[in-house]
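Justification of resources, computational component.

The compute hours requested in this renewal are based largely on the per-chain cost of generating structure records like the one below. Each record pairs the submitted sequence with a full structure-token output. That output is archived, and it is also reused by downstream analysis tasks.
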Amino acid sequence: MAATDIEPAHTERAVVTHVDTAEVPSAEWGWSGEAPRTFKAAGIIVALILLAMIIGNHHGNIENIFLVGFALAIFAIIGYDWIYRRKPR
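The structure output for this chain reads:
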């Protein structure tokens, strides 16, 4: 038979990390997030490297179109993230 007593509620809120500590051991001490600032800096560096690759020993412009296109796509993604992270949810 089930007990009729009601357990008192805990006053402390549980911290939900959405990370299983068995899969990610570093989640126990709070290091399991993303680093958006680092990702943006890396994206800008990669886009600049792509643009620097335009200077090379190729003769066609197809390579240039792809290099500029991918660099612009990276800049667009970073710009989109920069604008929409400022908006309150």
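Residues 34-84 form one domain. Residues 55 and 72 are 17 Å apart (CA to CA).
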